[in-house]
Amino acid sequence: MTVTLRDATTSDIDALLTLNGYVQAWHAETYPAAFKADPDPLAMRRFFNELLESQDAFVTLAEMGGQPVGYLFATHQKRPETHISLARRRVHIEHVCVAPEARRCGIASLLLENATETARALGCDEITLDTWAANDTAHATFEKNGFVTARLWYAKPL
C-alpha cells in the first residue's frame, strides 16, 4: 500500500494524539520514573496545537490508505556563534512515531528522509535527534538512514 506524507494541520490533532499514545506508552513502560502513563489530554491537545502553529517546528503526517499511521515532529534551530562554538543551523527531530500495525513498511525511513530534505531546504548544517538507550529498534532505523552517534549522554539516578 502506498504511503503519503503531508504537513499536519490542526484538523489532525486527534490522529496525532492517538499516534503519540504509542510513543508515550512505550516511554512510560520503559522509563516509568521519567514518563507519565496517562498525560493530561487537554495539555497534550494544547501542546500539539501550539506546535502546529509554531514557525520553528514542523509535523509531517504519514498516511496509508488515507489513514494516519505515523508522524515526525521536528524543530528548526539556529544556534549563534559563541566564544567556544561555531554558529549552527539544524533540524532537530523530537518525535518519530509509527503505529504498531504499520511498522516495518518503511514509514519511519520516509519520514526521516523527508525531514532531511526539509533541513536541506532550510539551509541547515545538520539534522539531529536523540533517543533513549533501550530503543534498539529505533537505533537500527536511524543508523540505516545515515544517522551516526555524535555524542553520548549519561545519567546517574539519585
Describe what you observe in this structure.
It is a single chain. With 158 residues, the chain is an alpha+beta fold. It is 35% helix and 26% strand. It has 4 helices and 5 strands, in the order βααβββαβα. The protein has helices spanning 13-30, 41-53, 107-121, 136-144, and strands spanning 3-7, 57-64, 67-79, 88-98, 126-129. Helix 1 (13-30) packs across helix 2. It starts with a strand and ends in a 14-residue tail after the last helix. The model has no long low-confidence stretch (mean pLDDT 95).
Index terms:
five-stranded mixed β-sheet; alpha+beta; 35% helix; 4 helices; globular; 158 residues
The residue-averaged pLDDT reads: 95
Rg calculated over all Cα atoms: 16 Å
Order of the strands making up the biggest sheet: 1-2-3-4-5
Number of helices: 4
> What about the largest sheet?
5 strands, mixed
- Give the termini separation: 48 Å
Class by alpha and beta content = alpha+beta
Oligomer: single chain
The overall strand count is 5
β-strand amount: 25-35%
**Uncertain stretches:** none
Outline: globular
- The residue fraction in helices comes out at 25-40%
Give the SSE map.
Blueprint (H helix, E strand, L loop, with lengths): L2 E5 L5 H18 L10 H13 L3 E8 L2 E13 L8 E11 L8 H15 L4 E4 L6 H9 L14
Parallel strand pairs: 4-5
Antiparallel strand pairs: 1-2, 2-3, 3-4
Short description:
With 158 residues, the protein is an alpha+beta fold. The chain has helices spanning 13-30, 41-53, 107-121, 136-144, and strands spanning 3-7, 57-64, 67-79, 88-98, 126-129. Strands 1-2-3-4-5 form a 5-stranded mixed sheet, sandwiched between helices.
